[in-house]
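Lab meeting prep.
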Amino acid sequence: MARFYQAILNGGTLDGVRLLSAKSVSEMLRIHTPGIVTGFTPGNGWGLGWCVVEKPQGVTRLLSPGTFGHGGAWGTQGWIDPNRGLVFVLMIQRQGFGNSDASDVRDSFTAAAVTAHGGSESAHAKFVEYHGYKQAVELTRGNVRAVLCPEVGGRPLEFSINGKSVLFLDDQEGRGKQAGNRP
């Protein structure tokens, strides 16, 4: 998904190969529903296959106008902020998640990504050293803590509730590797 989103962000090209015409991408991202309340969060319109943020607010408050994307039935979110050149991909597969488009999980994820991109911290997102990684991003919300590592493609290093992590991380595994490399 991230590579497909990168192609759309690039105006229809990926790795120097044109997959869609620039005109097709432009038409896909043009709002075709002006003045109509659309989507599952306020301030959006619909392009062709994409929800487009017109007036950022609520969970989209940190995104730029013109950000586009969509959510999935079981919580997956994918959004592209062309102003910042960022692709947000949140892979969740959770039944009964409710309105994942307006969820606290999406809100915290967006805040963490924008915070990390800007190099600053917020009340729920900060940089920490974790398992030898100097710039891991710690997200907290109540009794939930997640630590993600931009140095290895945003990989989760910890996901814990009440201090008990549900992930296993070998102290030696992954250290020093670049995003996308596999052992």
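Slide two material, second protein:
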Amino acid sequence: MTVPSTNVGLSSIQTEFGGSNPISISEYYLGGSFVSPSTTAPNGPIPASGQISIGQFRAAVSPIDVDFLVIAGGGGGGHRNITNAGGGGGAGGYRSGTFSSNAGVTVTLTVGNGGAAGTGCGGDANGKQGGTSSLTGSGIPTINSAGGGGGGNGAHNGAGMPGGSGGGGGGYVDVSAKGSGNSPSTSPSQGNDGGDGSYTGGSDRNGGGGGGIGATGGAATTAGGGAGSGGAGTASLITGPSVVRAGGAGGGNASSGTLAPGGSGGGGRGGDNNTPGEAGTPNLGGGGGGSVNCNLGGNGGKGVCILSVPTSKYSGTSTGSPVVTTSGSKTILQFNDSGTYTT
């Protein structure tokens, strides 16, 4: 909306900038409780103090403050075709905050897919990195969240892959190349490292857990012990109720036994000789579980992009079929697939 260019009154200023009755012009200084410093005022400038008049608000437009959450796809679980297990995939990168936009700006949301698990029944394979999720638009900061790192493959030098959160190390990683993912290589940091795989002189080495946004992945113990659990996700209130997202996956257990749990927030459970790794939960950005032998690792979970706008400023113009809900004074758009929103 815009303040009219003629016949401006206190009520029209209140409609654009907010506030409650009784209305006073002194409530609407630039940079105060209602008028953002980035307000466009063709008949201004609107003063920050001193003398202020209704005429200075003609055709003024308040910027729209939009909360966002951008989570990339989770990494796939690692695979090993003999007795050493692959690591769990890391959670997709997690970024949140607020940006200000003028009306009429098209915001493009790209939702990254989960990374594929290591596959095959005759070789070793790292899990693949998850797809990048992003938010772009004219005059607003570009937000990129890196895909979760794939789990290590359980062979020599099968370290967990870097990503938003790092993949867990495979269960046969040389001491000189321990397998925690290198999430600090992303800027800003968007998650945590994966856990180390076990390394001993014997067999049956277990995979480390994938990192989550809330915690690093668990390290595997030595032969006969357990695989590393996935790192925890973190809770957000952007959609109203608290929802935990971006958990890392459990590593593979090289022998039959207790399966390593995924982290809260969609991380997949690790597998063993009898059970494949579990996929990360779609649209939570969780990592896929590691596995061993011909039981495949789990694919990473797809990411998500969420916008929360003041209902009074909601345009209703979008593509990509976002899920639209309301919570309090906000309208929320959850993009489970790529799309756009025009402010």
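Talking points for slide two:
The first helix runs from residue 10 to 17.
Residues 156 and 213 are 28 Å apart (CA to CA).
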